[in-house]
Amino acid sequence: MYTGEPAWPFADSEDIMPQLLNGNAPEIPQYLPWEARQFLKTCFARNPDERGIAEELLKHPFLRNVSDQKKVSATGVGGKRELVVVMRFKDTRKKPLRVKIFPPKPLQFKKSSHRPLG
Hints:
Layout: H1 13-21, H2 34-44, H3 54-58, H4 61-64, E1 69-76, E2 79-86
């Protein structure tokens, strides 16, 4: 997700299973910043003693360095919402940034004791 590319070039999750069962982790691209590579190595560590727990990972320098976050407002169905967009290392691969926008939850109508006119 960080790079915008799948971890493995397989089309189906069933194709990934042999890689996982053989103890292989996705290759970490060398063009990523050092802190990002260290974070991913900690996440992918096969040995549980070397693998980070959630509390440790949340304190990792890679995740703490969020000074480049930008807050933006978006208006759409369901009203105005505030989003946090993290822009890191945008010139890393010299390719356009891909953005996925997830629609807000559909409006929920409250039940009413009023009957329709008719």
